Amino acid sequence: MKKSIALGAALCTLLSVTTMSACTPAAQVDPIDDNYRVFYQIFVGSFSDSNGDGTGDLRGIINRMDYLNDGNINSGKSLGVQGIWLSPIFKSPSYHKYDAADYYQIDPKFGTQEDLEELIKICHERNVKVILDLAINHTAKNNEWFVNFVNAHKKNDTKNEYYDYYTCVTSSTKVNGRTYYSLYNGSVEYYEGNFDSGMPELNYDSQKVKDRMVDVAKHYLDLGIDGFRFDAIKYIYYNDTPKSAEFWGWYMKELRKLKPDIYTVGECWSADGEILEYYPAMNCFSFDTAQVSGMAATAVRGQIDVFARYVENFQKSAKAKNENSMYIPFLSNHDLDRAAGYFPTKQVTSDGNVEHPATIAANIYLLCSGSPFIYYGEEIGMKGARGSTNTDANRRLAMLWGDGDTVRNPTGSTYNSEFQINGTVADHLKDENSLMNYYAKLISLRNKYPQIARGNYKALTPRTGCAGFVIEYNGEKTVLLHNVSTAAIEIDLTALSADVSAVADYIGQGKATVNGGKLTIEGETSVILK
């Protein structure tokens, strides 16, 4: 407990460096009361350690809430996110916890159920939603369900409750494209394990399994959890998208009976054609937007018009599947190399121009439709990549707080700490022009204009290197433009397909002004016109 208090006090000290008010200001009414929020992904074991054992935990997150959201949207002192996604917190044999040994127990390394309830309470007081990462397609092998399943098959006890809990086949009934392992030594039966032999796939042809997973979700919804990020949704029936999508339609119908405003997002690591098949049930992460080859990177490299058309078309396609759908953009996550590796905070081109890819990338996906997700550490330019050792642990490194936090890198990481050149949270909090403070300003700007998240988007490309959208919301039109080049661009307002005459706001490396019917946007700057 002494460690927790010390870390909380240290964070308050850091937060007060660049702001004028106290660390825990009086609450201000947050106008956002729906699911159109900026979320922050936390890999729990790598985020913040409260007890000195080197592993991040729930109390560590509690201690850092003033950094994430201090409860006052006008304070300018916190990042200002309005949702947090926690990587799996269930009891598990692995460091990553994507193989649950018991869905109903918090892993002791992360804390207790009481810690989770306290975190939920603090978040809700600050209008922050909490979603849990729920991997329901497979469990750990030491899960009691799997142990009982194997024993039932050894005894051929077909009446055992767990007999059909997992996918079980013979040599003649294996499905092409799926991976199987012998059920036990000498067995003629096989269980499915598409990720790993230690992660057996549950059998969703069993109503008992389906009902059990509704109960797991209910358990956490009853504790106050706002929803879930569902892992690997296409693996329910791997390589059978229609059947997997049918399951998720049923499952989400059951969960919405429990909580009509539940926030859910699915991970379908595929192109949009397959992702959209799940949209009748839930929103999904846009993998076509993420990574070094994604649409955000395409825009940063100069083809902002391609990104604008992509967003317009995706929004139309998603709404055709589900009128309540949302675009869920992100740059990277725990399974991808970190964005700072390809969006540096600053770089000098061969012709001597200075570029700021990190801020442009942030503008592009945070000032956009739907509900974007920030990966922890992205806001301070943390780096991390699989590299030649080919380990995901290098993408899940310890958060760089710079205040003595004892959280350590996860098991298996090999990343050279000398590559971390962009500083710590402490460094960023002291510099009003830091990337972290830029993210905070950007989120605040997004919240100021509800149409950015909620409006209907139509692509607009007035000039090469400058594109964006006409956004229609509640009968009004707003223009959002991004100049991704380093040079200033002048645009005739009559070319904008909307009756706008003034700059409402701008953010970036320069300014935006209107003079004599001409809009000037300086380099690497985004502008909102009304």
What's the SSE blueprint?
Elements: H1 2-15, E1 39-42, H2 58-63, H3 65-68, E2 83-86, E3 90-91, E4 102-106, H4 113-125, E5 129-134, H5 144-154, E6 168-169, E7 180-182, E8 190-192, H6 207-223, E9 227-230, H7 241-258, E10 263-266, H8 272-275, E11 283-284, H9 295-300, H10 304-321, E12 347-348, E13 354-355, H11 357-366, E14 373-375, H12 425-430, H13 435-448, H14 450-454, E15 456-463, E16 466-473, E17 476-483, E18 489-492, E19 503-508, E20 512-515, E21 518-521, E22 525-529
Parallel strand pairs: 1-2, 1-14, 2-5, 5-9, 9-10, 10-11
Antiparallel strand pairs: 3-4, 6-8, 7-8, 12-13, 15-16, 16-17, 17-22, 18-21, 19-22, 20-21
Helix pairs in contact: 6-7, 11-13
Helix content: 25-40%
Q: What's the total count of β strands? A: 22
Number of DSSP helical runs: 14
Kindly report the average pLDDT value: 93
Return residue spans where pLDDT drops below 50 for at least 5 consecutive residues: 1-27
CA radius of gyration: 24 Å
Strand order, sheet with most strands: 11-10-9-5-2-1-14
User: Which structural class should the secondary elements be placed in?
Assistant: alpha/beta
- Strand percentage lies at 15-25%
The global form is globular
What's the main sheet like?
7 strands, parallel
What separation lies between the terminal Cα atoms?
51 Å
